[in-house]
Amino acid sequence: MGSYFARRAGVALVQLVGLALIAFSLIHLVPGNPVQEMLGTHATPHNVATVSARLGLNRSLVAQFGSFISGVVTGHMGNSITFGQPISSLIAERFVPSFVLIVYGLALAVVIGVPLAVLSAVRPGGPLDHGVRVFATVSFAMPTFWLGLVLALLFGLKLHWLPVAGYTSGVGGVLRSLTLPAIVLGLSLLVIVVRTLRSTMRKTLSTEFVEAERARGLSTSRIVSHHVMRNAVMPTVTVLAVNIGFLIGGTVVLEQVFQIPGLGSLLFLAVEHRDYPVIETLALMAGTVVVVLSLVADLAQAIMDPRVRLGARAV
């Protein structure tokens, strides 16, 4: 187990270094100068050169990347070019709405998707199975911004059940202000839960030990709850961990549609103003979450299923 953990952690470290390099490189290829954006009408060549030297943007890309990595290691990410605040404080101010939105959307996807996947798996090929798969596919195919606007028009402006913009703290405020975007986020992830869990359950239901349990007279519900789900849930958790990045990307659009002051809207503003430090930090932060969750899911699967460790050792 120790050797498997060491190999998997080494791969995760290489992924993080590559992610940092890609995030740093791509934003510097985007046209535009953040200093000119910041100075506006005062962006004379002399002022641009002076501010660039003060911010360290006149140094070579290698030197800037070294400073970026040093800030990541020490936790001092510097200041935002646009806002003039420490990046850590900006992230702290906007972290909670984005985090709650992602958790809320993920919870809705699991609460809705797991029962649908179970019903679809135990009765394959029937009308219910086809209906579940069609519903999951359609929910995934609908653009998040379009579905968000439709739900806002229906439940906000038409029925006046929920607010269509803004964010309010507190349990009641969070439920009211984040329910609509969380539904959109959850529906976009629903197809992953349904398809992955249904596929693994169908494979497990066709194994010999399940047939033996049926021959012993156990009911389908008992077989599913005590045996099938235990083997089918970990692959689904692994796929969900990888697709957390999809949820993070989805918040950028939803926070703009519903005017939520989260990390997604902060990233949008940073890209608009070419705020290199903020963009690099948020990109690395999102990638780190995906890599770490993927690592945790793989380790959990290896603990529960020794075949994973044996397969990795054989490779």
Helicity range: over 70%
Low-confidence regions: none
How much of the sequence lies in strands comes to under 5%
User: Can you give the mean pLDDT?
Assistant: 80
Task: For the record, give the distance between the C-alpha atoms at the N and C termini, rounded to a whole number.
Answer: 15 Å
Instruction: Write down the CATH class of the domain at 87-272.
Output: Mainly Alpha
CATH superfamily of the domain at 87-272: MetI-like
CATH architecture of the domain at 87-272: Orthogonal Bundle
Q: In one word, what is the shape?
A: globular
**Helices and strands, in N-to-C order?**
HHHHHHHHHHHHHH
The number of distinct helices, counting runs of at least 4 residues, comes to 14
Number of strands: 0
The CATH topology assignment of the domain at 87-272 is MetI-like fold
Radius of gyration (Å):
24 Å
Instruction: Tell me the structural class.
Output: mainly alpha
Task: Write a concise synopsis of the structure shown.
By secondary structure, this protein is mainly α.
Give a written overview of the molecule:
The protein is mainly alpha-helical and 315 residues long. The chain has a domain at 87-272: MetI-like (MetI-like fold, Orthogonal Bundle). It has 14 helices and no strands. The mean pLDDT is 80.
